[in-house]
Amino acid sequence: MRRNFLNLRTLVSIPLLTGVLLSCNNEVNESLDPETDPVEDGRWITIAAAKMGDNPGDGNGGTLIYAVSASDAKDPTKTVAPFDNGFIVPSNRTARLQSSEDGSTIFNISYAGDTGGNYTKYTVNGGQDFAPTGSEVSIAPYVGTAPRWIKLFDGDKTGAAVYVSTENQFDDKGTPNDDTDDVYLRTEATMGIVTLDLENSIIKNFQEASIPLSAEEEALGYYISRIDMPTLNAAGNKLYIGARLSKVDPATAERENDYEILGSKTIVLDYPSLLNPTIITSTVGFGDTNGYRSINAFEYNVSVYQANQNDPEGSHILKIDANNEYDNTYDFNLDDALGIEGAYILAWRPTEDGKAVIAYRHNDSADGIAGAQGYFALADLNAKTAQKITAIPYDVDFYLFQYQGFVIDGNEVYVTQAPVGQNGNIYVINTETGAVTKGAELVNVEGSHFIGAF
């Protein structure tokens, strides 16, 4: 007889609305003018800051945001102090933020706590003024109170969230009266995906499906344990979902930690129906494609470019062509490009010209107060080259593992730089010239850090 045992459940979710609004206080940073008109002074740049919970850099004390004009963001005489007078984003821990492409709207998913799973949308008015907009809806009963989600690049119309649940399947070869052990067969992975109308706060579609690996891979104990970062292709008819593989020992069904890493995999399904999932496998990159808190795959020049993590040969940028298959002739290895070992892409974002800013760490990164030291690199997707951005100062406590947001404004990319618990600055990188502009000072507090610009 066959018996199924629940192994684990990983949730990665979608938008919900709530009307909870908080702010630290009513003070406004006097060195910035929250009444600046972004139409006359460029787009809004929203700085996100993660407050310490129990340990430096954990970000579990909540998330605060503060918006400045583009010109103020570039001005090193200005200061930005979200921890003192920012808007507190509803979230028990680090919020999962997204912004509209023009910076006028912030989307948030509350993570954990009483408001966990609530989706909120705000109009950016400058300073700590983020006005709630739209209706409210909660989908926590479907995807839990600690969701992860993504905004598709379809003109800020759609959000998408995914989860995977897994069960170890066994075949009992014995009888009810003997002690014969169950025989492990495989691990069943079931994917759920939801799409949400961000404009009207209405669920558009929900589907569940099995996502099996090959019979050979499953017999060895491999299964998809986590999925994340849905990305729409250029044609708008396929959705790509990044995946992480785990493995159990078939002899014991106990999870293994040291095993052969398989080729990077992505789930491909029809859009908007969310039907007919298939799995494609890279022969160039190995490891995970689900990313962490920042978008991990982007459409550029008809293809989708995707970062991978935990690759034994260092992170790659992988390419999925218009035929919805990996282009295994495209080999962009960050180790080779930067002359390092163990490159790990923490977050990245390309511009329309095929240049990209990458946040990364590597094997020789110093061990800081919160984790491995991070760096920024400027990459070229077409030339498959990358260079460390040396004009940005680095510190042993410059921690980028939780980094989420880059602002793209033409060929300029806005990033935040500040070691955990120390002040830093906004920096603006011109991807065409490579020039780096030091901008407004970021005022930090003990144990806390900045998680990006939106």
What's this, in brief?
With 454 residues, this protein is mainly β. The protein is 5% helix and 44% strand.
Description:
- With 454 residues, the protein is mainly beta.
- The chain has a domain of 207 residues.
- The chain is 5% helix and 44% strand.
- The protein contains 5 helices and 31 strands.
- Strands 1, 11, 12, 13 and 14 form a 5-stranded antiparallel beta sheet that branches. Strands 2-6-4-3-31 form a 5-stranded antiparallel beta sheet.
- A hairpin with a 5-residue loop joins strand 15 and strand 16.
- 50% of the residues are buried.
Which terms would index this structure?
single chain, 454 residues, mainly beta, 5 helices, 31 strands, 5% helix
List the helices and strands and how they pair.
Layout: E1 2-12, E2 22-23, E3 44-50, E4 63-69, H1 70-73, E5 79-80, H2 82-85, E6 87-89, E7 96-99, E8 105-109, E9 119-124, E10 130-132, H3 140-143, E11 150-151, E12 158-172, E13 182-197, E14 202-210, H4 215-219, E15 222-232, E16 238-247, E17 263-270, E18 278-286, E19 297-300, E20 303-307, E21 316-320, E22 332-333, H5 334-338, E23 344-350, E24 355-361, E25 375-380, E26 385-388, E27 407-409, E28 412-417, E29 424-430, E30 436-442, E31 449-453
Parallel strand pairs: 5-30
Antiparallel strand pairs: 1-12, 2-6, 3-4, 3-31, 4-6, 7-8, 8-9, 9-10, 11-12, 12-13, 13-14, 15-16, 16-17, 17-18, 19-20, 20-21, 21-22, 23-24, 24-25, 25-26, 27-28, 28-29, 29-30
